[in-house]
Protein backbone atom coordinates (compact mmCIF):
# COMPACT_ATOMS: atom_id res chain seq x y z
CA UNK A 1 0.00 0.00 0.00
CA UNK A 2 1.23 3.50 -0.70
CA UNK A 3 2.75 5.32 2.25
CA UNK A 4 0.47 8.28 3.02
CA UNK A 5 3.46 10.42 4.04
CA UNK A 6 4.93 10.08 0.55
CA UNK A 7 1.71 9.69 -1.40
CA UNK A 8 2.05 10.67 -5.05
CA UNK A 9 0.31 13.50 -6.83
CA UNK A 10 -1.42 13.06 -10.15
CA UNK A 11 -1.39 15.41 -13.11
CA UNK A 12 -4.41 15.40 -15.44
CA UNK A 13 -4.08 15.78 -19.18
CA UNK A 14 -5.56 19.00 -20.55
CA UNK A 15 -8.30 18.81 -23.15
CA UNK A 16 -6.56 21.60 -25.03
CA UNK A 17 -3.22 23.33 -24.57
CA UNK A 18 -4.35 26.40 -26.52
CA UNK A 19 -4.63 29.29 -23.99
CA UNK A 20 -7.25 30.98 -26.14
CA UNK A 21 -9.57 27.99 -25.76
CA UNK A 22 -9.46 27.83 -21.97
CA UNK A 23 -12.18 30.46 -21.54
CA UNK A 24 -14.33 28.73 -24.16
CA UNK A 25 -13.90 25.36 -22.42
CA UNK A 26 -14.68 26.91 -19.05
CA UNK A 27 -17.92 28.43 -20.33
CA UNK A 28 -18.85 25.27 -22.25
CA UNK A 29 -18.45 22.84 -19.34
CA UNK A 30 -20.07 25.22 -16.87
CA UNK A 31 -23.08 25.57 -19.18
CA UNK A 32 -23.31 21.81 -19.70
CA UNK A 33 -23.11 21.19 -15.96
CA UNK A 34 -25.84 23.71 -15.15
CA UNK A 35 -28.00 22.30 -17.95
CA UNK A 36 -27.52 18.75 -16.65
CA UNK A 37 -28.45 19.76 -13.10
CA UNK A 38 -31.50 21.67 -14.30
CA UNK A 39 -32.72 18.89 -16.60
CA UNK A 40 -32.30 16.05 -14.12
CA UNK A 41 -33.79 18.01 -11.23
CA UNK A 42 -36.74 18.84 -13.46
CA UNK A 43 -37.28 15.14 -14.19
CA UNK A 44 -37.13 14.30 -10.46
CA UNK A 45 -39.58 17.12 -9.62
CA UNK A 46 -41.96 16.13 -12.41
CA UNK A 47 -42.07 12.45 -11.47
CA UNK A 48 -42.47 13.12 -7.75
CA UNK A 49 -45.21 15.76 -8.17
CA UNK A 50 -47.46 13.94 -10.67
CA UNK A 51 -49.28 10.89 -9.30
CA UNK A 52 -49.81 9.54 -12.81
CA UNK A 53 -46.04 9.03 -13.06
CA UNK A 54 -45.78 6.97 -9.88
CA UNK A 55 -45.06 3.80 -11.85
CA UNK A 56 -41.96 1.56 -11.98
CA UNK A 57 -40.75 3.00 -15.28
CA UNK A 58 -40.70 6.59 -13.98
CA UNK A 59 -39.43 5.46 -10.59
CA UNK A 60 -36.34 4.06 -12.32
CA UNK A 61 -36.10 7.17 -14.50
CA UNK A 62 -36.06 9.48 -11.47
CA UNK A 63 -33.39 7.31 -9.84
CA UNK A 64 -31.38 7.51 -13.06
CA UNK A 65 -31.60 11.31 -12.86
CA UNK A 66 -30.35 11.26 -9.26
CA UNK A 67 -27.41 9.06 -10.27
CA UNK A 68 -26.68 11.26 -13.30
CA UNK A 69 -26.45 14.32 -11.04
CA UNK A 70 -23.93 12.52 -8.86
CA UNK A 71 -22.07 11.15 -11.88
CA UNK A 72 -21.54 14.49 -13.60
CA UNK A 73 -20.82 16.24 -10.28
CA UNK A 74 -17.93 13.86 -9.69
CA UNK A 75 -15.88 15.11 -12.64
CA UNK A 76 -17.09 18.43 -14.06
CA UNK A 77 -16.73 20.78 -11.03
CA UNK A 78 -13.12 19.65 -10.62
CA UNK A 79 -12.52 20.08 -14.35
CA UNK A 80 -13.95 23.62 -14.26
CA UNK A 81 -11.66 24.53 -11.35
CA UNK A 82 -8.63 23.05 -13.13
CA UNK A 83 -9.38 25.05 -16.28
CA UNK A 84 -9.77 28.24 -14.28
CA UNK A 85 -6.64 27.76 -12.14
CA UNK A 86 -4.51 26.24 -14.93
CA UNK A 87 -3.30 23.67 -12.39
CA UNK A 88 -4.69 20.17 -13.22
CA UNK A 89 -3.02 18.47 -10.24
CA UNK A 90 -4.81 16.31 -7.66
CA UNK A 91 -3.61 14.72 -4.45
CA UNK A 92 -3.59 11.00 -3.75
CA UNK A 93 -6.50 11.09 -1.30
CA UNK A 94 -8.59 13.37 -3.52
CA UNK A 95 -7.92 11.13 -6.51
CA UNK A 96 -9.07 8.01 -4.66
CA UNK A 97 -12.18 9.87 -3.49
CA UNK A 98 -13.03 10.96 -7.02
CA UNK A 99 -12.36 7.46 -8.35
CA UNK A 100 -14.66 5.98 -5.70
CA UNK A 101 -17.56 8.31 -6.50
CA UNK A 102 -17.00 7.84 -10.22
CA UNK A 103 -17.16 4.04 -9.92
CA UNK A 104 -20.25 4.05 -7.71
CA UNK A 105 -22.27 6.46 -9.84
CA UNK A 106 -20.95 5.07 -13.14
CA UNK A 107 -21.77 1.48 -12.22
CA UNK A 108 -25.17 2.54 -10.87
CA UNK A 109 -25.85 4.26 -14.19
CA UNK A 110 -24.94 1.10 -16.06
CA UNK A 111 -27.06 -1.14 -13.83
CA UNK A 112 -30.07 1.18 -13.95
CA UNK A 113 -30.04 1.15 -17.75
CA UNK A 114 -30.19 -2.65 -17.58
CA UNK A 115 -32.98 -2.51 -14.97
CA UNK A 116 -34.99 -0.13 -17.17
CA UNK A 117 -34.62 -2.54 -20.09
CA UNK A 118 -35.88 -5.36 -17.85
CA UNK A 119 -38.84 -3.20 -16.83
CA UNK A 120 -39.79 -2.64 -20.48
CA UNK A 121 -39.37 -6.37 -21.17
CA UNK A 122 -41.82 -7.29 -18.42
CA UNK A 123 -44.29 -4.55 -19.42
CA UNK A 124 -44.38 -5.56 -23.10
CA UNK A 125 -43.83 -9.32 -23.00
CA UNK A 126 -45.75 -10.09 -19.78
CA UNK A 127 -48.28 -7.24 -19.39
CA UNK A 128 -50.75 -9.30 -17.33
CA UNK A 129 -48.12 -10.01 -14.68
CA UNK A 130 -46.46 -6.59 -14.78
CA UNK A 131 -48.05 -5.22 -11.59
CA UNK A 132 -47.22 -8.42 -9.74
CA UNK A 133 -43.62 -8.71 -10.92
CA UNK A 134 -42.72 -5.00 -10.74
CA UNK A 135 -44.25 -4.35 -7.33
CA UNK A 136 -42.73 -1.63 -5.11
CA UNK A 137 -40.67 -4.05 -3.03
CA UNK A 138 -39.20 -5.68 -6.15
CA UNK A 139 -38.33 -2.26 -7.58
CA UNK A 140 -36.62 -1.36 -4.33
CA UNK A 141 -34.63 -4.61 -4.42
CA UNK A 142 -33.47 -3.83 -7.97
CA UNK A 143 -32.24 -0.39 -6.91
CA UNK A 144 -30.54 -1.81 -3.81
CA UNK A 145 -28.96 -4.60 -5.87
CA UNK A 146 -27.59 -2.05 -8.33
CA UNK A 147 -26.03 -0.10 -5.47
CA UNK A 148 -24.50 -3.21 -3.89
CA UNK A 149 -22.98 -4.28 -7.21
CA UNK A 150 -21.52 -0.79 -7.52
CA UNK A 151 -19.88 -1.24 -4.12
CA UNK A 152 -18.46 -4.60 -5.24
CA UNK A 153 -17.02 -2.93 -8.32
CA UNK A 154 -15.44 -0.26 -6.12
CA UNK A 155 -13.94 -2.84 -3.73
CA UNK A 156 -12.43 -4.79 -6.63
CA UNK A 157 -10.79 -1.64 -7.95
CA UNK A 158 -9.47 -0.85 -4.49
CA UNK A 159 -7.96 -4.32 -4.22
CA UNK A 160 -6.29 -3.85 -7.60
CA UNK A 161 -4.96 -0.36 -6.83
CA UNK A 162 -4.11 -0.39 -3.13
CA UNK A 163 -2.22 -3.68 -3.01
CA UNK A 164 0.60 -2.28 -5.10
CA UNK A 165 3.02 0.63 -4.79
CA UNK A 166 3.29 3.43 -7.26
CA UNK A 167 6.64 3.76 -9.01
CA UNK A 168 6.83 7.54 -8.90
CA UNK A 169 5.82 10.39 -6.62
CA UNK A 170 4.33 12.31 -9.55
CA UNK A 171 2.40 10.65 -12.36
CA UNK A 172 0.28 11.79 -15.28
CA UNK A 173 -3.23 10.47 -15.80
CA UNK A 174 -4.21 10.38 -19.47
CA UNK A 175 -7.64 11.84 -18.79
CA UNK A 176 -9.24 14.87 -17.16
CA UNK A 177 -10.31 12.92 -14.04
CA UNK A 178 -9.13 9.96 -11.97
CA UNK A 179 -10.18 7.32 -14.46
CA UNK A 180 -10.01 3.86 -12.81
CA UNK A 181 -8.54 2.25 -15.92
CA UNK A 182 -5.80 4.89 -16.00
CA UNK A 183 -4.96 4.38 -12.34
CA UNK A 184 -4.54 0.67 -12.98
CA UNK A 185 -1.82 1.49 -15.47
CA UNK A 186 0.10 3.60 -12.95
CA UNK A 187 0.62 0.98 -10.26
CA UNK A 188 3.84 -1.02 -10.27
CA UNK A 189 2.98 -4.44 -11.54
CA UNK A 190 3.22 -6.08 -14.90
CA UNK A 191 1.10 -4.93 -17.83
CA UNK A 192 -0.48 -8.35 -18.28
CA UNK A 193 -1.97 -8.32 -14.77
CA UNK A 194 -3.17 -4.75 -15.26
CA UNK A 195 -4.90 -5.67 -18.52
CA UNK A 196 -6.48 -8.78 -16.96
CA UNK A 197 -7.94 -6.70 -14.12
CA UNK A 198 -9.18 -4.04 -16.54
CA UNK A 199 -10.85 -6.49 -18.92
CA UNK A 200 -12.42 -8.51 -16.10
CA UNK A 201 -13.93 -5.35 -14.62
CA UNK A 202 -15.19 -4.22 -18.00
CA UNK A 203 -16.70 -7.62 -18.74
CA UNK A 204 -18.38 -8.05 -15.36
CA UNK A 205 -19.82 -4.55 -14.97
CA UNK A 206 -20.07 -3.52 -18.62
CA UNK A 207 -20.74 -6.43 -20.93
CA UNK A 208 -23.03 -8.26 -18.48
CA UNK A 209 -25.56 -5.36 -18.26
CA UNK A 210 -25.30 -4.92 -22.02
CA UNK A 211 -26.09 -8.62 -22.50
CA UNK A 212 -29.18 -8.22 -20.33
CA UNK A 213 -30.27 -5.17 -22.35
CA UNK A 214 -29.73 -6.97 -25.67
CA UNK A 215 -31.67 -10.02 -24.45
CA UNK A 216 -34.54 -7.85 -23.17
CA UNK A 217 -34.89 -5.96 -26.44
CA UNK A 218 -34.57 -9.15 -28.49
CA UNK A 219 -37.57 -10.55 -26.62
CA UNK A 220 -39.40 -7.21 -26.94
CA UNK A 221 -38.90 -7.05 -30.70
CA UNK A 222 -39.94 -10.69 -31.08
CA UNK A 223 -43.09 -10.06 -29.07
CA UNK A 224 -43.97 -6.87 -30.97
CA UNK A 225 -43.44 -8.33 -34.42
CA UNK A 226 -45.45 -11.39 -33.55
CA UNK A 227 -48.58 -9.84 -32.08
CA UNK A 228 -48.87 -6.04 -32.01
CA UNK A 229 -50.66 -4.05 -34.74
CA UNK A 230 -48.74 -1.36 -36.60
CA UNK A 231 -49.94 1.50 -34.37
CA UNK A 232 -49.04 -0.46 -31.24
CA UNK A 233 -45.61 -1.21 -32.68
CA UNK A 234 -44.97 2.46 -33.37
CA UNK A 235 -45.93 3.46 -29.82
CA UNK A 236 -43.79 0.72 -28.28
CA UNK A 237 -40.75 1.56 -30.40
CA UNK A 238 -41.18 5.23 -29.50
CA UNK A 239 -41.21 4.34 -25.79
CA UNK A 240 -38.10 2.18 -26.09
CA UNK A 241 -36.28 4.49 -28.52
CA UNK A 242 -35.29 7.00 -25.83
CA UNK A 243 -33.80 4.30 -23.66
CA UNK A 244 -31.90 2.74 -26.56
CA UNK A 245 -30.46 6.13 -27.53
CA UNK A 246 -29.00 6.61 -24.07
CA UNK A 247 -27.75 3.01 -23.94
CA UNK A 248 -25.87 3.36 -27.23
CA UNK A 249 -24.35 6.72 -26.27
CA UNK A 250 -23.31 5.68 -22.76
CA UNK A 251 -22.03 2.16 -23.41
CA UNK A 252 -20.54 2.91 -26.81
CA UNK A 253 -18.21 5.62 -25.53
CA UNK A 254 -17.60 4.19 -22.04
CA UNK A 255 -16.57 0.71 -23.14
CA UNK A 256 -14.64 2.09 -26.08
CA UNK A 257 -12.54 4.27 -23.78
CA UNK A 258 -12.21 1.57 -21.11
CA UNK A 259 -10.97 -1.19 -23.39
CA UNK A 260 -8.91 0.93 -25.77
CA UNK A 261 -7.06 2.93 -23.11
CA UNK A 262 -4.25 0.38 -22.98
CA UNK A 263 -3.87 0.30 -26.77
CA UNK A 264 -4.41 3.90 -27.81
CA UNK A 265 -1.43 6.17 -28.44
CA UNK A 266 -3.55 9.34 -28.27
CA UNK A 267 -4.40 10.13 -24.62
CA UNK A 268 -6.16 13.37 -25.57
CA UNK A 269 -8.51 11.45 -27.89
CA UNK A 270 -9.48 9.17 -24.99
CA UNK A 271 -10.06 12.23 -22.79
CA UNK A 272 -12.32 13.83 -25.40
CA UNK A 273 -14.22 10.54 -25.84
CA UNK A 274 -14.64 10.34 -22.06
CA UNK A 275 -16.49 13.65 -22.17
CA UNK A 276 -19.26 11.92 -24.10
CA UNK A 277 -20.28 9.51 -21.36
CA UNK A 278 -19.23 11.52 -18.29
CA UNK A 279 -20.70 14.88 -19.33
CA UNK A 280 -22.81 14.71 -22.50
CA UNK A 281 -24.86 11.62 -21.59
CA UNK A 282 -25.99 12.85 -18.12
CA UNK A 283 -26.85 16.18 -19.72
CA UNK A 284 -28.90 14.67 -22.57
CA UNK A 285 -30.72 11.97 -20.58
CA UNK A 286 -33.54 14.14 -19.19
CA UNK A 287 -34.11 15.98 -22.46
CA UNK A 288 -34.22 12.81 -24.57
CA UNK A 289 -36.76 11.27 -22.21
CA UNK A 290 -38.85 14.42 -21.81
CA UNK A 291 -38.96 15.36 -25.50
CA UNK A 292 -39.89 11.85 -26.62
CA UNK A 293 -42.27 10.99 -23.78
CA UNK A 294 -45.87 12.16 -23.92
CA UNK A 295 -46.53 11.55 -20.20
CA UNK A 296 -43.52 13.62 -19.14
CA UNK A 297 -44.49 16.48 -21.46
CA UNK A 298 -48.07 16.45 -20.15
CA UNK A 299 -46.87 16.50 -16.54
CA UNK A 300 -44.48 19.37 -17.30
CA UNK A 301 -47.30 21.38 -18.88
CA UNK A 302 -49.47 20.79 -15.80
CA UNK A 303 -46.67 21.95 -13.50
CA UNK A 304 -46.01 25.07 -15.56
CA UNK A 305 -49.71 25.92 -15.76
CA UNK A 306 -50.12 25.56 -12.00
CA UNK A 307 -47.07 27.75 -11.34
CA UNK A 308 -48.03 30.44 -13.86
CATH class: Mainly Alpha
Provide the succession of SSEs. Answer: EHHEHHHEHHHHH
Largest beta-sheet characterization: 3 strands, mixed
Distance between the termini: 59 Å
Keywords for this entry:
308 residues, mainly alpha, Rhopdopsin 7-helix transmembrane proteins, 3-stranded mixed beta sheet, disordered N terminus
What does it look like?
With 308 residues, the chain is mainly alpha-helical. It has a single domain (8-307), classed as Rhopdopsin 7-helix transmembrane proteins. The chain is 78% helix and 3% strand. The chain contains 10 helices and 3 strands; from the N terminus they run E-H-H-E-H-H-H-E-H-H-H-H-H. Strands 2-1-3 form a 3-stranded mixed beta sheet. Helix 1 (19-49) runs antiparallel to helix 2 (56-85), helix 3 runs antiparallel to helix 8 (230-260) and helix 7 (191-227) runs antiparallel to helix 8. The longest helix is centred in the C-terminal third of the chain and has 37 residues, at 191-227. The N and C termini lie far apart (59 Å).
Could you outline the blueprint of secondary structure elements for this entry?
Elements: E1 9-12, H1 19-49, H2 56-85, E2 89-90, H3 92-125, H4 130-133, H5 136-162, E3 170-173, H6 180-186, H7 191-227, H8 230-260, H9 267-292, H10 294-307
Parallel strand pairs: 1-3
Antiparallel strand pairs: 1-2
Helix pairs in contact: 1-2, 1-9, 1-10, 2-3, 2-9, 3-5, 3-7, 3-8, 5-7, 7-8, 8-9, 9-10
Outline:
The chain has helices at 19-49, 56-85, 92-125, 130-133, 136-162, 180-186, 191-227, 230-260, 267-292, 294-307; strands at 9-12, 89-90, 170-173. It is mainly alpha-helical and 308 residues long.
Amino acid sequence: MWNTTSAPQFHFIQLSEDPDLQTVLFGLFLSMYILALFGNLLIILTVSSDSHLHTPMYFFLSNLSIVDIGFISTTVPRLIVDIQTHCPVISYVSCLTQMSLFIIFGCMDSMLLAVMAYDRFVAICHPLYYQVIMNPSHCGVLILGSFLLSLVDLLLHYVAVLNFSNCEDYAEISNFFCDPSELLKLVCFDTFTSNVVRYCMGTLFGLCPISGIIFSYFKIVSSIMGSSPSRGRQKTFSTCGSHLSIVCLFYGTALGVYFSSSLSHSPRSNAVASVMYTVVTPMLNPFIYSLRNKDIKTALKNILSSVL
